[in-house]
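User: Once you have settled down, look closely at the record that follows, taking as long as you need, and be ready to discuss the fold:
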Amino acid sequence: MGALHEGHFALIRKAKELAGDHGTVVVSIFVNPIQFDRVQDLESYPKPINDDLRYCENLGVDFVYTPKSEVFYSPDRSIEVSENSLSSLLCGATRPGHFDGVCTVITKLFNILNPTAAVFGQKDYQQLTIIKRLVRDLSYRTEIISLPTVRELSGLAISSRNAGLTDTQFTQASAISEGLEKARELHASGVTSADRILSKFRLHLDKCAPLSKINYLECVCADSLQALSEVDKPAVIATAVFFGQVRLIDNIVL
């Protein structure tokens, strides 16, 4: 959605690697209005398109697709693409309609651009999993490539939203990744109770990030994204944390 940063640059470099000398790399930049559940969030979302285009040119991108909303979506549009299982928890539980917007825009982008492969980051694990399910269930031939979350030196997941943090909030926000790592270490020691594992994260955040407020914190199956009480299969701890009006997401795989 623009405001490109090192996380996006990593995706572009991977796409260049996959495309090789004879392939074509396309970057879509489109702040998708139908996936925002808060008007304020849509209006305040950064849109430095000239900077983004310069970054893409410097990285060797072949084409940048930047549609206008009024062209991309017909004014009398009446069809959306919905997902009704993977989106029931995490971001989907508190952002009604968000993943309908994601599924709809990805469906349209894939239909328009017909990519052989598409590269996504793991920072939004739920979105990545839903897109993989969309490709499977709608029989797209696009291969979904995922890359690990790119982080600041402090461990904080790089995000365009980080620019909205004060210096103090930015420093405290590193507690998110630290708490996730402490929870992972507790599980690695043999603890399988999801409640105990999640409590480890909460305690660390309470201690090191008093300006934070947890939006959600869940331990879910890595495949189905359904909540687990016992971590006896591949799992993910996913969280969204508010610092003031800035909402940050992160996750760690167990």
The longest strand covers residues 212-221. The chain has nine helices and seven strands.
